[in-house]
Amino acid sequence: MKESIKFLGEQTNQAEVRLSKAVMDLENHMNECECDDAVWYSFINTIGHHETHRFCLNCGGYVTPKEEI
To answer: Tell me, what DSSP letter sits at residue 62?
Structure first.
């Protein structure tokens, strides 16, 4: 593996872990997002052990994918 790709992967993973912590700190992850302007991020690589891994970056609530509705 190229060192540059390895470095970018490590940096991306660390950023995703920090983002996940910031969203969880909103303490709304047990509630569904009701934002009109929801911007969500899928944390499947960080918190893949949860059934829900898409969370709104505005409120911290979970976002149900449209294909599951």
So the answer is: B
Is the backbone of residue 68 left (phi > 0), alpha (psi -120 to 50) or beta? alpha
SS3 for 40?
strand
Q: What is the pLDDT of residues 12-59, one digit of tens each?
A: 999 999 999 999 999 999 999 999 998 999 988 777 666 778 999 999
Give the separation between CA 1 and CA 64, rounded to whole angstroms.
Answer: 36
Its pTM stands at 0.79
For the segment 50-68, what is each residue's pLDDT rounded down to a tens digit? 677 899 999 999 998 776 5
Rounding to the nearest 10 degrees, give the CA dihedral for residues 41, 25, 53, 17: 70
* Structural domains in the chain (count): 1
Range(s) of the domain holding residue 62: 3-68
